[in-house]
Specification:
4 strands, alpha+beta, 2 domains, globular, GST C-terminal domain-containing protein, Glutathione-S-Trfase_C_sf, about 55% helix, Glutathione_S-Trfase, Glutaredoxin, four-stranded mixed sheet, Thioredoxin-like_sf, 9 helices, Glutathione S-transferase Yfyf (Class Pi), Chain A, domain 2
Length: about 220
């Protein structure tokens, strides 16, 4: 495998999906990359051959196919070590992974999936409303946890350390997703003001503006 800086990178993405997070990371690092659309719900046979799990994000790094959020972001960090997207110290790296694992599992894999991918949890459509309600309830718990953590650590600009990390992208997309909630309204700005102010500041960054333009988020 060639050295990180000269390895061709291709990100398979879907509009508004979690692939927004590594897209932001690529923009933040300035790494040259190609984007290939793999729309959720309309995956092609060609994409399935690349990733039989039929999920985004997928990062092609030279001859390597990398799947799963934390792995994809780690690959990007490896390709751009001077960008420090996993922090600048060993403890900061641990904290970034702490956020990514929590957001990937409890927030995205559980709550968001219960709301938007309810069929993954049951074959009985009659209980879809209960599952979606539980998803919204869990999202409120997640936002309350984020708000509490931010207040306790006096976080206003970056979730970890004093510069952008991969955790910032995931924390921000959760905020953006709430605008697409159809059954329950969660007023982030008023209910979780510290978190809301942090995201609004993050969304002013050039990388986020570029990724939002493409993802239409």
């Amino acid at each position: 495998m060639s050295t990180p800086t000269d390895t061709p990178l291709t990100l398979f993405w879907s509009p508004g999906a979690c692939s927004f997070v590594p897209h932001v990371a690529l923009c933040e690092t300035g790494l040259k990359h190609d984007l290939v659309l793999a729309k959720v719900g309309h995956m092609t046979k060609e994409f399935e051959a690349i990733n039989p799990k039929r999920r985004v994000p997928v990062l092609i790094m030279g001859s390597e196919v990398i799947t799963e959020m934390a792995a994809v972001l780690t690959a990007i960090a490896t390709a751009a070590p001077d960008s420090h997207i996993f922090g600048k110290t060993p403890l900061e790296k641990i904290r970034v992974y702490e956020w990514l694992n929590y957001l990937s599992t409890t927030a995205h894999g559980q709550a968001i999936a219960e709301i938007w991918r309810t069929e993954r949890f049951t074959n009985n459509p009659e209980i879809y409303p209960q599952l979606r309600a539980k998803g919204y309830e869990t999202m409120r718990e997640i936002f309350a946890h984020i708000e509490s953590k931010f207040k306790a650590a006096n976080i206003t600009e970056f979730a970890v350390g004093n510069s952008y990390t991969a955790a910032d992208g995931f924390l921000s997309v959760l905020y953006l997703w709430t605008a697409r909630f159809t059954e329950v309204t969660i007023d982030i700005d008023n209910e979780y003001p510290v978190y809301a102010a942090y995201v609004k500041m993050m969304l002013q960054r050039t990388a986020f503006i570029e990724a939002r333009r493409i993802h239409k988020l």
